[in-house]
Specification:
It comes from Embleya scabrispora. The protein is an alpha/beta fold and about 260 residues long. It has 11 helices and 10 strands. Strands 1-2-3-5-7-10 form a 6-stranded mixed sheet, with helices on both faces. A 4-stranded mixed sheet has the order 4-6-8-9.
Length: about 260
């Protein structure tokens, strides 16, 4: 589910559901949250690197399980989506993200919490919220405009279009792009530079940068959750999930015409 490796005061967390493109089910949300809690508390860990196994970084939330949760046939995890995002947002040490492949949904919006993000030149990102007839998540309605500017954020969050590695670098969504076979070496080289520093100094330095943003992100997440709640289970959202299962494009125009 998640692989944990330590070297030179750097802990690497590898999302390991390659058969599902590392999509987050409740078990993976829980495992990632627990791993972040452990890393935050471990005095031997100075830096955490988050990456994925196989050809994807993460395909986002497991839509099959989401449908089961919505229907009441699946029990939520101990942490779930919200709890994992809480742990990422509050993580006190440097968090580096190495995007090794496809990243959708939380596999893209997590970059809003990355202290440094690295991306393979073959990787792509997508925020598919409007294609699912839902709203942005994980504070991205604030973190993305802060990182990449309002218009780039609007395109990323409203279009549901793929963003290439080159586009992500140009926007400022990622720190560096490198050949796929060099991604982890480049990421780890930067991680080791940070990990050689005093952990209390790293924590305080990160806190001074991010403390002023905490309230705005918390407020954004509350707004996003409310918007998501209004849209989840709506006719358009049901059409989107049905279309996904049937491997076709959703017909939102017909839904809007009927509902209007």
């Amino acid at each position: 589910m998640i692989r944990i490796e330590d070297a030179d005061r750097v802990r690497t967390l590898t999302l390991d559901r390659p058969e599902a493109l590392n999509a987050f089910n409740e078990a993976l949300y829980d495992a990632t949250a627990d791993a972040l809690i452990d890393a935050a508390a471990d005095p031997a860990v100075a830096v955490v690197v988050l990456t994925g196994a196989g050809r994807a970084f993460s395909a986002g939330t497991d839509l099959i399980e989401m449908a089961q949760l919505n229907s009441g046939t699946k029990v939520k995890g101990r942490h779930g989506f919200g709890g994992m995002v809480d742990r990422i947002q509050a993580f006190p040490k440097p968090l580096l993200v190495a995007v090794n492949g496809l990243g959708l949904g939380i596999g893209a919006t997590v970059l809003g919490f990355a202290d440094l993000a690295f991306m393979a030149d073959t990787a792509r990102l997508k925020c598919p919220f409007t294609s699912l007839a839902v709203a942005p998540e994980a504070g991205s309605s604030v973190t993305f405009p802060q990182l990449i500017g309002r218009q780039n954020a609007m395109w990323a969050l409203l279009s549901s279009e793929w963003l290439s590695a080159a586009e992500c670098l140009e926007m400022g969504l990622v720190f560096k792009v490198c050949p796929a076979d060099e991604l982890m070496a480049v990421t780890m080289r930067h991680a080791r530079i940070l990990a050689a520093k005093s952990i209390p100094s790293l924590i305080e330095a990160k806190r001074t940068v991010l403390d002023g943003l905490g309230d705005s992100v918390a407020q954004a997440r509350r707004r996003e959750d409310a918007a998501f709640g209004r849209l989840l289970g709506s006719p358009a959202n049901i059409e989107a999930l049905t279309a996904f299962a049937e491997r076709r494009e959703p017909d939102f125009a017909a839904i809007d015409a009927r509902e209007g």
